[in-house]
Amino acid sequence: MEKEFEIHQKVRIIGIPDYIKTAEPMPMLRPPNVVKLGEEGTILDRRPGGYWGVRFEKGAFLLESQYLEAIDLPESNPSPES
Does this model's pTM top 0.90? Predict the structure, then answer.
């Protein structure tokens, strides 16, 4: 089953593909070392072909969901359960 993310959701890279596509109108292939395993980014959008546009420190790239995991940020002020 393919993972689903929300726009602006924080994600982490859990696998590196053989190459990375840029998230430009005309995507270009980049070497895999342009991002690092464990690097965190933000989901920009959903693209055709099962790709997600993700903004990282070195730019925006297209990655399939198998290479990403959601980052669950702890709530800053959790409410007590009744």
Answer: no
